[in-house]
Amino acid sequence: MGNSVKNLAILGATGSIGRQTLQVIRSLPGRFRIMGLTAGQNLDLLAKQIAEFQPKFIYYQSVNKHHKLTDTGCEFLSLEEIASQPEVDTVVIATSGKAGLLATLAAVRAGKNVAIANKEPLVMAGEIITREAKVSGARILPIDSEHSAVWQCLNGEPQPPARIILTASGGPFRGYSTQELNNVTASQALKHPSWQMGKKVTIDSATLMNKGLEIIEAHWLFNVPIDKISVIIHPQSIIHSMVEFADGSFKAQLSYPDMRLPIQYALTYPERVPNPELPKLEWSKIKTFTFEPPDFTTFPCLKLAIKAAKTGGTGPTVLCAADEVAVELFMKDAIKFTELACLVKQVLQEHKPIPNPTLEDIMQADNWAREYTLKLAGKKI
Ligand code: MG
After folding, report:
1. Same domain for 249 and 343?
2. Taking 70 as the threshold, does the pLDDT of residue 200 lie above it?
């Protein structure tokens, strides 16, 4: 370890995870070199990041605004090309929704260290991604806090876990009735009680879809059957997940809820590095830890995700696609909060899952589900 500088590409650099990744990099000087930065929407912030970190490769989604970045001297490449550049050691997948799927596959096929925060690629194409990683020797390093916790608990354990327990804060509407949920707005849903995250994942946390996607993500990352992965609501968000072993012993990972910690662990692994900017837990201020089972009736998305996971094949792809469209409709006030789960449910019911899907099957199922969700809602995005 020690002196070797890691060469990073950050895909989705201007989003919540991307910005927090750059904060970690600023607070650990001399450890990382930024080779690539990409963004989807925030041109001004991307331009500032380019000026500060001087990457070699860049990408920006809106083609007609490319000219604003021509003076930077950077080479303009696609996400997939940046993710597989020989000079890049570690690719941080900080994109949102489906956007990171092909780049994740490219990074995996190129045998990179893939620090992944974007859960949809693994949910949609977990079978292909994990199979390709075995072939290429790519290492998938989870950034999602629950999966980072499970990973940390499993490090040094020769046997697979008997059970994984993912913790959930319960989101901003924990304890609400279905009737109360009918009238909640997008701005209420975007106020997460304990985590700073992007919009898509924050809405998914409010519906508990996020936890459902995390079950599928954990299944692929740790090769544990779906029915050995459960969810417990822990509103304090201090225990980030737990693992139970064959003898009934548990291990859990605890810390102050701040995404920079799991980001840093994925980037410095296997080293643990002091970072003065990360908030520390103050045990004297923690009065209680509480746990409660999730409310599957009021938050049906969790049940839908588990069902799609057990069906397998293209089921989880359709779940992701329908959810991504429904979340967008909800954020535009085009549907109610409670209609979100109804839409996803109807789309899943109409889908005939294809087992062991190819990438093409996945892309087709994704397209179909997006169009069908919009058709059912009678809306356009
Ligand atoms: Mg999470």
Report:
1. no
2. yes
